[in-house]
Design a protein that fits this description.
By secondary structure, this protein is α/β, with parallel strands linked by helices. The strands form four sheets. The protein has a seven-stranded parallel sheet with strand order 11-12-13-14-15-16-17, with helices on one face. A five-stranded mixed sheet has the order 2-4-7-6-5, sandwiched between helices. Strand 13, helix 19 and strand 14 form a beta-alpha-beta unit. Helix 1 crosses helix 7. It binds one DNA strand of 29 nucleotides through helix 2, helix 4, helix 7, helix 9 and strand 6.
DNA sequence: GCCGTTTTCGGCCCGACTGTTTTCAGTCG
């Protein structure tokens, strides 16, 4: 198993954090951070590139030194300078910098003065009063640190995107009700549709900021007002979620939205671009001296910088700025492009609604088709169907089809991929299905080679169409099973199979970087909900967001095709 | 540590807020 891009990225990222605490040059630190992000999101395997003697310095931000360090990591799995640094600076210090209010400088000061190495050390030192003596630490700072440690115990930082949306909506509604507010929205990683959100960044365009701030800090869910200013405030909600609010005049709204949407790296890239022309870009606008060149809307700012408009989902400084300069941005898939859903369950197994209800709901959403993909017999816990039960469901589908206007219910199943890679139902019945979706539900801990071989054998099956939740990850709960994703992609491309982009909030599986990898490998995806109830059919937008983060366009997604076009792509013609 | 159509050295994004300050460093986004 070669060293994964993610592993290299983690090492660089960790090294950057330790260097920063050590007081290294900030731009040197940034160079490692940039490299980490580049490699983490890079489609091709960097380890393969090293093996093939490709010139890594061709990559933006990778020079001779970093190229050498990448080779070292690929070849040894380690980075000697990091290990050397770790002898002086305990690794656990990095975690301390993730506490709000504690940055690299203060962590270093605590370590130097009191040998504080981790959360427990910090708490002890704070409670004992020893921190008081250190320059720069007053009682208020210490109180906030203790609070932050408590909060850390309660939440584990990030929340799923869907939970963030639930927290944001009532708050936005409240702020929109204030007089003089012309716009209110959530920016930040939420707007970029990342899988999880660390905090909410609200942006309000208004003429009377004081009133907006007052409404904000008096919201009933606010547990604590962390900071309060005239244009910017921060609160912590009872749920533990931190919310930042920034107010701007309407003339700056676009520039502010751009700025607060980030990512930070994207902002830096844009500001550098502005600086090259002698301009200055801030949240107040794009300026030449005192003259405002743009700022009211985002498209205006991009246009003035000579860039095509960049969708929020792409703003990670992962090649989108260069693509926008060259006019080579992809046209991203949109929710309205989707013509149907290829993964959902009914009461027959572990769904909550009947076949009729699910079909009716699909019809109401204007779909041309919906695939009913109940589990198969191996998944006993979900009451998986055997051939006979599935046959009965197929007959029920036959009776329903034709009575539902333009909607066609596709006969399908989420077939278990068994430990040896064979499928859980005999060919006789698989042949009768319109589409075969396959998935792994057990033996998550096979060694990478065996797990990969297991999937490859399933893809080899003559009737296999779509690999559901391809890596099996559950955000915040477990990583995906260990597989060689590049091999899986190559195999899927060879065999005319497709990968699912699972829309469930907790799955978002494929990951964004893997969506992009699929595009490069010329593997098409199905954006599906895996809905276990009628309401979950609406999670399709999360799958779309995920695909957009992975640079996918309409053509990359099989269920943007009409029914005839879809059938033409599947193995049964 | 990276980078270069003014540069191979000297730059590298910009501003708000807090707390502990006698004028500003640290943190955050």
């Amino acid at each position: 198993m070669p060293v994964a891009n993610h592993d290299i990225a983690e090492i660089f990222s960790h090294y950057a954090a330790l260097l920063e605490i050590d007081g290294a040059n900030a731009f040197r630190v940034r160079a490692y951070q940039n490299a980490a992000r580049l490699i983490d999101g890079y489609a091709a395997s960097v380890a393969d590139m090293v093996r093939d003697h490709e010139d890594l310095t061709e990559l933006a931000g990778i020079g001779a030194d970093l190229a050498g360090k990448i080779e070292e990591i690929v070849e040894t799995g380690r980075l000697a300078p990091l290990e050397e640094l770790e002898r002086r600076m305990p690794s656990a210090l990095v975690e301390l910098t993730t506490l709000p209010g504690l940055g690299p400088k203060r962590v270093k000061a605590l370590y130097d003065a009191l040998e504080v190495r981790g959360l427990e050390d910090l708490e002890r030192a704070a409670r004992s009063g020893r921190i008081r003596g250190i320059r720069g630490f007053g009682q208020k700072t210490i109180d906030k640190l203790l609070q932050a440690i408590d909060a850390r115990r309660d939440t584990h930082g990030r929340v799923l995107w869907l939970e963030a949306e639930r927290a944001a909506e009532p708050l936005l509604k409240r702020l929109r009700g204030v007089g003089g507010v012309s716009a209110a929205t959530v920016a930040g990683s939420f707007r970029r549709c990342k899988e999880t959100v660390g905090d909410l960044d609200l942006l309000v365009a208004c003429s009377r900021s004081a009133e907006v701030m007052e409404r904000f800090v008096t919201y009933e869910e606010v547990e604590e007002v962390v900071a309060r200013g005239t244009t910017r405030s921060t609160v912590r909600l009872r749920s533990g979620l931190q919310v930042d609010l920034r107010t701007v005049p309407a003339a700056s709204y676009g520039a502010a939205l751009l700025y607060f949407t980030g990512s930070k790296a994207h902002n830096i890239a844009l500001r550098s671009l502005a600086a090259k022309r002698g301009w200055k870009l801030s949240e107040y606008g794009l300026f030449e001296g005192r003259k405002r060149l743009a700022g009211r809307t985002e498209p205006e700012v991009y246009r003035r910088l000579g860039l095509a408009y960049i969708e929020p989902e792409l703003r990670e400084n992962a090649g989108e700025v260069e693509a926008a300069q060259a006019g080579k941005l992809p046209t991203l898939v949109e929710l309205k492009d989707l013509r149907g859903d290829l993964h959902c369950h009914t009461l027959a197994t572990d769904g909550a609604d009947t076949l009729e209800c699910m079909a009716q709901a699909a019809l109401e959403r204007g779909y041309e088709y919906v695939a009913i993909t109940d589990h198969t017999r191996h998944l006993r816990i979900a009451n998986g169907l055997d051939s006979r039960a599935l046959s009965r469901q197929m007959q029920a589908i036959d009776r329903l089809n034709g009575r539902l206007g333009k909607l066609t219910i596709l006969k399908s199943a989420e077939v278990d991929i068994l430990e040896d890679g064979s499928l859980d139902l005999p060919d006789g019945i698989l042949r009768e299905l319109d589409v075969v979706v396959g998935a792994i539900h057990d033996h998550f801990d096979l060694p990478p080679d065996r797990q990969t071989d297991r999937i490859l054998r399933a893809l080899d099956h003559r009737y296999f169409d779509v690999l559901a939740h391809p890596t099996g990850r559950l955000l915040g709960e477990r990583d995906g099973y260990a597989i060689d994703i590049a091999r899986v992609m190559r195999a899927a491309a060879d065999r005319g199979c497709f990968l699912e982009v699972n829309s469930q909030s907790k799955r978002r599986d494929l990951a964004d970087a893997y969506c992009r990898m699929a595009r490069d490998a010329r593997v098409k995806v199905a954006i599906s909900t895996d809905a276990h109830s009628v309401t979950q059919l609406d999670s399709l937008r999360l799958g779309v967001a995920q695909a957009r983060r992975g640079w996918l366009g309409r053509g990359d997604v099989i269920n943007t095709r009409g029914l005839a076009g879809l059938r033409a792509l599947l193995k049964r013609r």
